[in-house]
Amino acid sequence: MTTHFPPSQIAGAGIGLRSQHYQDILTHNPPVHWFEILSDNYLAPGGQPLHYLEKIRQNYPITLHGVGMSLGASDPLDLEYLARLKRLAKRIEPAHISDHLAWISIKGHFLNDLVPLPYTEAVMEHVAQRILQAQEFLGQRLLIENPSSYITFKESAMPEWAFIQGIIDKTDCNLLLDVNNIYVSATNHGFDPIDYLDAIPAERVKEIHLAGYEKRKDYLFDTHGYQIHPPVWQLYQTALKRFGAVPTLIEWDTNIPAFEILMAEADKANAQIKKVS
Amino acid sequence: MELAALQQLFYDAIFDKEGTNEKELCKLITTANNLTANEGIAIYRGSILGKLSRALKSIYPVCYRLVGEKFFEATATTYIHRFPSKSPDLGDYGEHFPDFLVNFEPAASLPYLPDVTRLEWHWHRIFNGEDSSTLDLKALGKISQTQWGDLIFHLPKTSILLESPYPIHKIWQINQSDYEGEEYVNLEEGEIKVFLWRQGYDMRIDLPTEEEWQLLKAFQAKKPFETICEDLAVGYEPAHGVSALLTQFVQRGWIVDFSV
I need a labelling partner for A233 at 20 to 30 A (CA). Which of A31, B78, B218, B228 fits? Predict the structure, then answer.
């Protein structure tokens, strides 16, 4: 591969790249450690978004984060999608590629939203085989993210964290630990988020996500549309103490604010990371 | 339950208006402290329909503006139930929206809406389409006179020729957020022909003359240059012969490549 970008390793706090901020970033070159893109938004063969992305990549490391792999689906793995993703990765030279421990499609029909799995040995084996196949196709180890959820299945035979440990054992993948998702799911399902963190193998956590949830009547909804809430910052501190100075992303997907607000959130994360560095 | 069966049941429960599948699915879901199984499913339904609806809104902002939030959301919901998403890329969703609107009774009072949305769909695809090269004039200059008749000229890959009985380009234009001109459109002004294309990363809406349109159609059909000259020779003013038009097309960037 011909390297034409700066090194891709990431450290410190990064920000989710959104089209509203292209001009801000290209004009002011803000002191952000790295950006993460929603890879599914850049699968088109050309056009202005890809052009801006390449310009931004000239100054910043980039990570690719998607929902499209549908790693938990029962359909065959979508090789056309993976080929598009691989082309994007070749073009952008990302630090890594991540997707979710969830499914979004059945028989070629897509929900385009992350749905949780029943956590059984059989499903673990099935998902592990798909992750191995995706890693083989893409030629690199993936980061797998824990989803937030609003339902759990009666047939689940283990908690999510044990399922994740099993997936790691079978696939040698790494983890993108979404601390906000842990907090949201813990509140919705009534488990202790510390139990979750206790079970996660520290050396596998290569990225953390932080985002703002929405408090609805009796549950938390993972909108990525607010500043990060105090209990999530608190859980993040605990996570950093256990896992070390893990690169951390500020995710914001709805009601996208001015870039300065995202910078302020990133500064707060950087201050926390510094404490454990 | 087999994973595939469970996932199909979940999918059907999201889109099934009868509630039979949801009832079956509820039996498989653990009731949490604060969320019943039905409430959990309803959260996913709202989130999934919301995502697909927002995808349509982002591709069809002019339609959204023309019909308003409530009407658009109701229309989107009907569309989503009839046309499932078939791609992990939400940018692929909504291709059939213009055709769907043709027979969508509640929108019948806005007969131009299907054509406006057709323009929006192609705008969206062209905006994100494959980058075109610019015409290699040096290479074209090396083609011998004897081969000129066999030349096939290529329009940008990111281009489309659209026709409508309504002035869709004006409707589109006055519904842009930065538009400041006259906000009046005469729907009776007659049929229009639009050449929508991308120059570099800039989107262009051009209104070709009838002669230009015929030539664009011929290039789009990948006809050899000699055939085009023969087909179009009749009816052209000498000053606007095919060769003269070709020169103008090249200057405008409408021709990006050629093959023999």
Answer: A31
Among B138, B75, B83, residue whose Cα is nearest residue B107: B75
Instruction: Read off the pLDDT of residues B120-149 as tens digits, 9 standing for 90 and up.
Output: 999 999 999 999 888 999 999 999 989 988
* Residue A1 pLDDT: 44
pLDDT tens by residue, B210-251 = 999 999 999 999 999 988 888 877 655 554 588 889 999 999
Tell me, what DSSP letter sits at residue B109?
T
Residues of A in contact with B86 (CB under 8 A): 108-110
Please, what are the domains in chain A?
A: 13-276 (3.20.20.150)
Calpha distance A8→B138 (Å, rounded)? 39
Tell me how far apart the alpha carbons of residues B140 and B246 are, in angstroms, rounded to a whole number: 13
Backbone angles phi, psi at A223, to 5 degrees: -95, -20
Q: What is the residue type of A275?
A: K
- Looking at beta carbons, which residues of chain B come within 8 Å of A67? 88
CA of A217: which chain B residue's CA is closest?
B34
The string over B28-44, giving b where at least 16 C-beta atoms fall within 10 Å of a residue's C-beta and e elsewhere, is bbeebeebebbbbbebb
Determine the average pLDDT of the residues in A60-68. Answer: 97
Region B60-71: what's the mean pLDDT? 97
Give the β-pairing of A13-16 and A248-250. Answer: parallel
Domains belonging to chain B, first-starting first, are 31-128 (no CATH), 131-260 (3.90.930.50)
CA distance B99 to B83: 11
Contact assessment for residue A200 and residue A240, using Cβ atoms and an 8 Å cutoff: no
Instruction: Compute φ and ψ for A209, nearest 5 degrees.
Output: -110, 140
Tokens of A243: 């896992």
DSSP 8-state code for residue A173: -
Contacts of A203 (CB under 8 A, 6+ apart): none
CB within 8 Å of B31: residues ≥ 6 apart: B37
Instruction: Determine the pLDDT at residue B183.
Output: 84
Give B231 or B187, the one with higher predicted confidence.
Answer: B187
Torsion of CA A229, A231, A232, A235, to 10 degrees: 160
* Cα–Cα distance measured from residue A240 to residue B74, given in angstroms and rounded to the nearest whole number: 45
Are the C-beta atoms of A206 and A172 separated by less than 8 Å?
Answer: no
A220: closest CA of chain B, how far (Å): 10
SS3 A2: coil
